[in-house]
Amino acid sequence: MRNKLSLLCVLGCFAQTGWAANIDNLGGLGQSEFKLFSEDIGAALSYKSVTPAEPLGVTGFDLGLEVSATEVKNSSLWNTATGSSVNTLPVPKLHIHKGLPLNIDVGAFYSSVPTTNIKLYGAELSYALLEGNVATPAVAIRGSMSKLAGVDQLSFNTKGLDISISKGFAMFTPYAGVGTVWVDSTPNVSGSGLSKESFQQSKVFAGGNLNFGLANFALEYDKTGEAQSYSAKLGLRF
């Protein structure tokens, strides 16, 4: 785990010199390979909130810079699709969450992955079934979506539904959850013979949130399908 967090910090601070992974050769994949490639993309680009279940409240606000690192399961297919050796895909994001009445939170993010043609945006709507207090945990359900932009050869989006639980202990709030991600992946490569793939992937995640007044730091582990992701977010939360 220590090695994963060290890798995550490095990815968050530096773009890899000489590493370019534009998705521009999907025609080199067969249909079954395109499905496996799409499963990797689904794990990497699906929505990751990196927040506990407890609602922010009407005046609450969360703004942070996040980076997720996903260990792709089919690196040889990435080499075909991008011409680069990809074992871990870093995805930096600008995240924002706002609390609303009735224990409802909304959130959104935007990402542009350095040295690739991957641009990504997404949104979420969550509702706390249990608000949580000193004695009881918070429980929330969340619907989310993400959509790929910038890749001419691929139209790609995900939709997610999950349930999570968290319990605060002073400044530290651990949380965990389970859910499902639905993926629609459509190739835009004429003459390739590739067709759309639509499938769902199971999702489990766990993390912890540290709050120091306004400053906030969160870490999260996520497994979507067969791929593992590690996320870190630093920002403001109140």
Subunit organisation of the chains:
single chain
- Overall 3D shape: elongated
Q: What percentage of amino acids are in beta strands?
A: over 45%
- CA radius of gyration is 18 Å
Q: Which range best describes the helical content: under 10%, 10-25%, 25-40%, 40-55%, 55-70% or over 70%? A: 10-25%
Largest sheet: 10 strands, antiparallel, barrel
Strand order of the largest sheet: 1-2-3-4-5-6-7-8-9-10
SSE order: HHEHEEEEEEEEE
Query: How far is the first residue's CA from the last residue's CA?
Result: 29 Å
Number of helices: 3
Count structural domains. Answer: 1
What CATH first level would be assigned?
Mainly Beta
Q: Uncertain regions: pLDDT < 50 for 5+ in a row?
A: 1-18
Known CATH architecture: Beta Barrel
* Number of E strands: 10
> Average pLDDT, to the nearest integer?
92
Task: Provide a quick synopsis of the model.
Helix content is 15%, strand content 52%. It contains three helices and ten strands, in the order ααβαβββββββββ.
Provide a descriptive summary of the structure in words.
The chain has three helices and ten strands, in the order H-H-E-H-E-E-E-E-E-E-E-E-E. The protein is mainly β and 238 residues long. A ten-stranded antiparallel beta barrel has the order 1-2-3-4-5-6-7-8-9-10. The protein has a single domain (2-237), classed as Porin, CATH 2.40.160. 15% of the residues lie in helices and 52% in strands.
